[in-house]
Amino acid sequence: MKIRDITVSAILIALTIIILYLNLLLPISTLSILTLASLLVPIALIKSSIKSAFSVYIISSIIGFFILPINIISLYASFFGIYGIIKYYIEKINKFYLEIILKLIFLTLF
Question: What does pTM read for this prediction?
Fold first, then answer.
């Protein structure tokens, strides 16, 4: 990984943890905060690489398990954080109906 990728990943990890921590401070829906936090993994994918996106997801999940309540971080680690990466791999197939079916299967599994 390049220094630029590491820097972008570190900034996105910090933003993810901050956004997830805001769920404790603000009286906003948990699902909206989790959705907002999950948007940062695809940004890492767009700005740098798939390796960077995996690192943002894994490291923010690990740090979150130490800092945040278990109910919030378990939702992020099990579904919301990984969805951008799974969606990337599904959309590489380039068959519309198969993509829809695979996304629905992933949605029903979690």
Answer: 0.88
Helix (H, G, I), strand (E, B) or coil at 98: helix
Give backbone dihedrals phi and psi of 39, rounded to 5 degrees, phi first: -70, -20
Which tokens go with 65? 């398990």
Burial of 94 (C-beta count, 10 Å sphere; 0-12/13-18/19+): exposed
* DSSP line for 22-40: HHHHS-S-HHHHHHHHHTH
Look at residue 40 and tell me whether its pLDDT is greater than 80. Answer: yes
Structure tokens at 58: 């894994």
- Is the predicted pLDDT of residue 63 greater than 80, yes or no? yes
Secondary structure class of 72 (helix, strand, coil) = helix
Pairwise CA distance, residues 28 & 22, whole Å? 9
Dist CA 41 CA 45 (whole Å) = 6
Token pair of 27 as six digits: 């009286």
Mean pLDDT of all residues belonging to the chain: 91
Q: Look up tokens 């197939």; give the residue.
A: 93
